[in-house]
TrEMBL record:
Its EC number is 2.5.1.145. Belongs to the Lgt family. This is Phosphatidylglycerol--prolipoprotein diacylglyceryl transferase. It comes from Methylophilales bacterium HTCC2181. Its main location: membrane. It is found in: Cell membrane. A 1,2-diacyl-sn-glycero-3-phospho-(1'-sn-glycerol) binds at residue 140. The keyword Cell membrane applies. GO terms for cellular component: plasma membrane. The gene is lgt. Keywords: Cell membrane, Glycosyltransferase, Lipoprotein, Membrane, Transferase, Transmembrane, Transmembrane helix. GO terms for molecular function: phosphatidylglycerol-prolipoprotein diacylglyceryl transferase activity. Catalyzes the transfer of the diacylglyceryl group from phosphatidylglycerol to the sulfhydryl group of the N-terminal cysteine of a prolipoprotein, the first step in the formation of mature lipoproteins. Pathway: Protein modification; lipoprotein biosynthesis (diacylglyceryl transfer).
Length: 262
C-alpha cells in the first residue's frame, strides 16, 4: 500500500502570485508540442509544413483545447447544472475540463489553420497527432499532484491512499493514464509517423489507441460522483471513447494516398 506524497499544488509562490503545478504541466506540454513539431519539420520532409503553420497550429489548437475542454465538460458532464448557473460556465479556476471536448476544439482550431494556409486538414492532423501525447502525460501528472480523478478501491500492492479523499487504497489511475495515453501512445505514434504513411493513418491510429487505452483505464477510475455509471455500467468517459474508436478504425482503413503533398 502506498500513500500519496501530498505535493503542494502550488509550485512557486512570489507574494500574491502563485504558479500551480497543474498550470505548469500544461505549459510544459505546450513547449513539448512546439519542440517536437520543429523536429518533425526538419526531419520529416513529407509533411511539407513550416514553422509559421506550426505556430498557428499551436495558437488555434491551444485555444481549442481550453475552450473545447471547458465547454465539453459543461455539455457532456453537467449540462443541467450549468444551464441553471450560466455565470459559472467559464469559471476555469473551479476546475472541470473534458479531453473529448478539448479534442473537438482542437479539430476546429486546426480546421481554421488549414483554411488560413490552404493546407489539407487531415494531413495537418497527421502532423500534430504524435505531438499531443506528451502533453497528455504532463496533464495527468498534474491531476496526480492535485489528487484528482482518482481510481476505484483496490487491494493491489500499488494501491494508493489519497488523503484528501479517504483512507481507502485506490488505483493511481492518473499514473495509468500518464503511462498509456502519454508515454506509450507517444512512442507508438512517433515511431509510426517516422516513415511516410497514407494520409489519415496517423490520425486514425491516434483516435483508435487513445480510445482503447482510455476505455480500459476507466474500469479502474472512480466514476464522477454526480453521474455514476451509465448505460451498460459504462462511465461517461467510456461512452465518449466509443465513437473515437469507431472513427479511428474507419479513418485508418480508408486512408488513401501518401502524406507527401506538394
Amino acid at each position: 500500500m502506498l500513500i500519496h506524497p501530498q505535493i503542494d499544488p502550488v509550485a512557486l509562490g512570489i507574494g500574491p502570485l502563485k504558479i500551480h503545478w497543474y498550470g505548469l504541466m500544461y505549459f510544459i506540454g505546450f513547449l513539448s508540442f512546439i519542440h517536437l513539431g520543429k523536429k518533425q519539420i526538419i526531419n520529416r520532409h513529407w509533411f511539407n509544413l513550416n514553422e509559421k503553420i506550426l505556430d498557428d497550429t499551436f495558437f488555434f489548437g491551444a485555444i481549442g483545447v481550453i475552450l473545447g475542454g471547458r465547454l465539453g465538460y459543461v455539455l457532456f458532464y453537467q449540462p443541467l447544472y450549468y444551464f441553471t448557473h450560466p455565470d459559472e460556465i467559464f469559471a476555469f479556476w473551479q476546475g472541470g475540463m473534458s479531453f473529448h471536448g478539448g479534442l473537438i476544439g482542437v479539430l476546429l482550431g486546426i480546421y481554421w489553420t488549414t483554411r488560413k494556409h490552404n493546407t489539407k486538414w487531415l494531413h495537418t492532423m497527421d502532423f500534430i497527432a504524435p505531438l499531443v501525447p506528451l502533453g497528455l502525460f504532463f496533464g495527468r501528472i498534474g491531476n496526480f499532484i492535485n489528487q484528482e480523478l482518482w481510481g476505484r478501491p483496490t487491494d493491489l500492492p500499488w494501491g494508493m491512499i489519497f488523503p484528501v479523499i479517504d483512507s481507502v487504497p485506490r488505483h493511481p489511475s492518473q499514473i495509468y493514464e500518464a503511462i498509456l495515453e502519454g508515454i506509450i501512445l507517444f512512442t507508438i505514434l512517433w515511431i509510426f509517423s517516422s516513415e511516410e504513411r497514407k494520409i489519415g493513418q496517423t490520425s486514425g491510429l491516434f483516435l483508435l489507441l487513445y480510445g482503447v487505452f482510455r476505455f480500459g483505464i476507466e474500469f479502474t477510475r472512480e466514476p464522477d460522483r454526480f453521474l455514476g455509471l451509465l448505460f451498460l455500467n459504462l462511465t461517461m468517459g467510456q461512452i465518449l471513447c466509443l465513437p473515437m474508436i469507431g472513427i479511428g478504425i474507419y479513418i485508418f482503413l480508408k486512408s488513401k494516398g501518401l502524406n507527401n503533398i506538394d
